[in-house]
User: What shape does this take?
Amino acid sequence: MRFDATIDYPADVRAVAAMLADDGFVRRKIEASGALDASCEILREGEAFTVTTRRKMPTDQVPSRFRSLVGQSLDVRLVEAWGAPQADGSRSGTLALDIAGVPVRVNGRMSLTPAGEGAAQSYSGDVTASIPLFGKPIEKAAADAVDKVLAVERRIGLEYLAGR
Assistant: This one.
């Protein structure tokens, strides 16, 4: 199932990129996601950076009819790899989300571009669930979860930028 989303921020692309690579911001996102346990690693290579988070998530957002397939919690690994900035500060990157023991994957592209007085962070990608008979409903539930995660990221990002 395809997903597309954009988060608009009232800060320039350089400030938003610095936020995305900030350990404090990443940890606030993780905490706001409701993770039971988590870790994060930020690797910088020149001006490019990769943020890898691992979260143990409760299954309360999994539709009840599918909870027996996933157990008591979900071990989620998200890798967001951002390339170096272009001359105008814009960046592109990739994202990959895997859930241990569950055949659901999220893969996509990200961009961070100037937008008026601020910046726009855009996502596009696919959610795939390779489970016979249940694949499409699980993909829909996962796409809905992506929307909720991005709403939390937007809220935390706005709070972060307002506090700087």
